[in-house]
Design a protein that fits this description.
Order of helices and strands: EEEHEEE
Strand content: 15-25%
Shape: globular
Distance between the termini: 53 Å
Radius of gyration: 18 Å
Mean pLDDT: 80
Largest sheet: 6 strands, antiparallel
Number of helices: 1
Strand order of the largest sheet: 1-2-6-5-4-3
Length: about 120
């Protein structure tokens, strides 16, 4: 048994990469088809408003945000899951948020010597 969910029936109707590096994919599927955890925070750099906007959902439409519990349809675990709280409109956006990296200019604080 595998932890990866993937099927041809999960074809997205929208898929693009934003200027900030976030990959935004929208699906017209029921939420119970997505391995989402709405008590978890997504990985990467994001804000509630930014994820709702990237998903194309208005904040006043009843947006819920969670994270993938495991890989889904090529999206890594921890990706944001954004949905509308409306059974009549089963739209789900999966957003792979960019991850912040910082570089250090300092030399290592330790050294080894065989002498």
């Amino acid at each position: 048994m595998t932890d990866v969910v993937s099927a041809e029936s999960f074809a997205p109707f929208y898929d693009r990469t934003a200027a900030d590096g976030a990959r935004i994919t929208r699906y017209a599927v029921a939420l119970d088809e997505i391995p989402a955890d709405f008590f978890a925070d997504p990985d990467g750099i994001w804000s509630f408003e930014g994820l709702a906007e990237a998903a194309g959902f208005a904040l006043d439409a009843g947006v819920a945000i969670g994270a993938l519990r495991r890989s889904f349809n090529g999206h890594p675990a921890g990706s944001a899951v954004v949905t509308l709280n409306a059974a009549a409109r089963p739209y789900v956006a999966v957003i792979e948020c960019p991850i912040a990296f910082t570089c250090s200019d300092e030399e290592p604080k330790h050294a080894a010597s065989a002498a």
